[in-house]
Amino acid sequence: MSSPPVTPPVVTPPVVATENLTKTYGGRSVVDDLNLSIPAGCVYGFLGPNGSGKSTTMKMLLSLIQPTGGRVQIMGRPMTRGTRRELLGSIGSLIEAPPGYAHLTGAENMRLVQRLLGLNREQIDDAVRTVRLQDQMDKKVRNYSLGMKQRLGIAMALARRPRLLILDEPTNGLDPAGIEEIRGLLRRLADDGVTVMVSSHLLGEIDKTANVLGILSQGRMIFQGTRSELMTASAPDVIISCSDPQAAVATLRPFDARHAGRSDVAIPALDDQQTAGAVAALVGQRIGVYGVRRDEQTLEDVFMSLTAGGGL
Ligand SMILES: Nc1ncnc2c1ncn2[C@@H]1O[C@H](COP(=O)(O)OP(=O)(O)OP(=O)(O)O)[C@@H](O)[C@H]1O
Questions:
Q1: ipTM confidence score
Q2: By CB count within 10 A, which of 31, 36, 158, 203 is most buried?
Q3: How many domains in the chain?
């Protein structure tokens, strides 16, 4: 009897991959040996304090500036002088200030994009609907709120129906309602199969939207993975609630224990075996152990400790 044919798994290359991507200005590396990997269909949150190199990285992905070293691959193909034009045709981007002529209406701005890129009317209408600006198209852009300008910028980036969208700090300066509007938009785009790379210096602005996070500090990637992997990697404190915290701190000095208020003692970076050892040591000293738990950590705590609070 012949065995059924084995279908090889479909391996989709990352939509963006960089290898040792580096940018140096005057001998200083502002992007340093970066290995980015952005899976297809995700919202990739690119986080880091101001000046950590996010914009410089995004500009290199878009070929707006030349890397000093390393390589960029988009959808499995190397970005070179020969492939650049074609690859950029499948990327929409919003870098720095929102684009658009202030003295023209939203509709006039979109018509310019249509003509410039040789698009059809349906593509323009779809993009405007996606960012929910269809009722604002006859207003001059100078009368738009910042959030509306950002959404118009995103509509311009979306009009060519890109597979990849690169947005540099699209929520910067927006009020909570504007931030929520952009979050919802990014989720809808990812649901429609667009891969979105979005930068921010504020974790709270994108952590609920992003499936994958890349955290940059001083030009180096200090973490890349899912939100839950980040929480796991951060090894939260173990908190032991006990009858005599002063004596417990003395007993657990080799574990770097500290008094954490009332009956609590906090111990950093303990694995399960070490936790059992710490509890046994307390029991051996006749200190009553009331409870043992892992500290609650917000993603903000983790981010702050990873980036040592620099610039936040
Ligand atoms: N053309 C340039 N010449 C010299 N230094 C530069 C240049 N462009 C950027 N830098 C420096 O590179 C570092 C990274 O800047 P970049 O704008 O990429 O950071 P960022 O993470 O995007 O921060 P921000 O959110 O503030 O823009 C900064 O120290 C910046 O001053």
A1: 0.95
A2: 31
A3: 2
9 lies in some domain: no
Atom of ligand 1 at shortest range from CA of 168: 22
Distance CA 120, CA 117 (A): 9
- Ligand 1: which residues within 6 Å by Cβ? 25, 30, 48, 50-56, 169, 201
Q: Which of ligand 1's atoms lies nearest the C-alpha of 23?
A: 12
Least confident of 61-70, 182-191, 223-232: 223-232
The answer to whether residues 187 and 45 belong to one domain is yes
Whether residue 257 is found in the same domain as residue 176: no
Q: Are residues 163 and 246 in the same domain?
A: no
Q: Is residue 308 part of a domain?
A: no
| Structure confidence at residue 147 (pLDDT) | 86
Q: Which of 54, 202, 216 to mutate to test the pocket of ligand 1 (most atoms within 8 A of CB)?
A: 54
Q: Containing domain of residue 176, as a range? A: 16-232
Choose among 218, 217, 215, 194: nearest CA to 206: 215
Q: What is the mean pLDDT of residues 149-178?
A: 90
Q: How far is the CA of 138 from the centre of ligand 1 (A)?
A: 36
Looking up residue 108, the CATH number of its domain turns out to be 3.40.50.300
Q: Which atom, in ligand 1's list, is nearest to the CA of 53?
A: 18
Question: Would you place residue 11 in the very low, low, confident or very high pLDDT band (cuts 50, 70, 90)?
Answer: low
- For 100-113, write each residue's pLDDT tens digit: 889 999 999 999 99
- Provide the strand spans (E) within the chain: 16-25, 28-34, 37-38, 43-47, 69-74, 77-78, 91-94, 164-167, 195-200, 212-217, 220-226, 238-242, 258-259, 264-267, 289-294
d(CA 168, CA 173): 12
User: Is the per-residue pLDDT at 311 higher than 50?
Assistant: no
Query: Pick from 200, 232, 264: which residue ends a domain?
Result: 232
- Amino acid letter, 222: I
Instruction: Report pLDDT digits (tens) over 33-78.
Output: 999 999 999 999 999 888 999 999 999 999 999 999 999 999 999 9
**Closest ligand 1 atom, CA of 49?**
21
Q: How far is the CA of 1 from the centre of ligand 1 (A)?
A: 64
- Tokens representing residue 213 in the block: 């996070």
